[in-house]
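[Discussion] Sanity-checking designs against the backbone

I'm trying to build intuition for which residues belong where. Below is a structure token string of 176 positions. I'd appreciate it if someone posts a full sequence so I can compare it with mine line by line.
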């Protein structure tokens, strides 16, 4: 089981790096040529749906299958991620690109919480009490540390950042 967890950690960390690079490419393209506008207009909501679905599934795999107890900050991040799967399914069905506004509003708090938890996991001082205190979970405990910086909260932060950038791109390129 440990080998499976280590392999899974490596591959999702690698996916996190690809997602971070994708966010950088979208930011650069949005600021310069918008050469990806047609692709984002056509597939942006699908990509957002699969990012949120993948993140939700992996969060559940780690807690329900691998047995990692999610801490309070992990649950708060899930609160901002899980609803996006269902809402994006609806946005895809109705072809509603304005959903991106609400996706941004859900992703910003998730990003902030994820960055704070990453800070804690790298040894930062707690300035907001961990909501998991007394539950057996620890917000500062690392279950994963790949490539010298990639933790679960960092993966979460990258996913939220990518979603924010993608949603902004969708809003900037939508046709009225």
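Best answer:
Here's mine. Compare freely.
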């Amino acid at each position: 089981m440990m080998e499976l967890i280590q392999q899974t950690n490596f591959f999702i960390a690698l996916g996190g790096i690809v997602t971070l690079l994708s966010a950088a490419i979208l930011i650069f393209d949005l600021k310069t040529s918008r050469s990806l506008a047609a692709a984002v207009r056509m597939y942006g909501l699908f990509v957002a749906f699969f990012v949120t679905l993948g993140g939700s599934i992996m969060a559940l795999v780690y807690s329900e299958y691998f047995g990692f107890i999610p801490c309070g900050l992990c649950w708060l991040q899930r609160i901002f991620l899980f609803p996006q799967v269902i809402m994006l399914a609806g946005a895809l069905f109705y072809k509603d690109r304005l959903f991106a506004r609400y996706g941004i509003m859900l992703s910003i708090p998730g990003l902030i919480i994820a960055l704070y938890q990453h800070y804690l996991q790298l040894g930062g001082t707690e300035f907001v009490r961990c909501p998991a205190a007394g539950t057996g979970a620890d917000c500062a405990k690392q279950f994963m540390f790949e490539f010298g910086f990639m933790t679960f909260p960092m993966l979460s932060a990258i996913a939220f950042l990518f979603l924010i950038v993608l949603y902004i791109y969708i809003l900037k390129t939508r046709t009225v």
